[in-house]
Amino acid sequence: QSALTQPASVSGSPGQSITISCTGTSSDVGGDDYVSWYQQHPGKAPKLMIYGVRNRPSGVSIRFSGSKSGNTASLTISGLQAEDEADYYCNSYTSSRTGVFGTGTRVTVL
Amino acid sequence: EVQFVESGGGLVQPGGSLRLSCAASGFPFSTYWMHWVRQAPGKGLVWVSRINSDESARMYADSVKGRFTISRDNAKNTLFLQMDSLRAEDTAVYFCVKDDHLWQLSTWGQGTLVTVSS
Question: CB B102 to CB A93 under 8 A?
Fold first, then answer.
């Protein structure tokens, strides 16, 4: 159950687009479409941003989108805003019927 | 409104035990899978355990298997995590989480802090 690999940090200027990658194996990310993404502001509980690779829960901005290719999932934030500055984590269901999170990515708005 | 009230955290010595509780309201608790997720101070999220709606299936991370037990009382809308043989590396904030469908961790509690130290 090794953590999925994410870049430690990603930054961008307001209005720009950024993409966060989440790399696993064929036993987790590549195995099915149960990949989700979470946003966490300091001192707060995480918030679901994307589920099922590319689906947005009600209330989440359309600026957030998800995709997957092979064993790598991605979260793209378009039109970057100051409020997007936070930590982001991917999560995947695994072939062992357990779950695994990514290492986490700190997004900084320059 | 979906709400969780977590309790049971605190300071415990290595080798000791704690039982976390998560009282749920605002949704039909008995029909949803539930999870525990933890976060060590300054570190990332780690999935701990999952239980299905009728307790017939429980899964655990390798790091806690054999030491932690997840359970639920659907009559009292409450999720539990019994933690035994606690280690320093179990120190973390523990979140209870509602799973809307097939690993959509949709709603999170505010967390309860567990500190394992002598």
Answer: yes
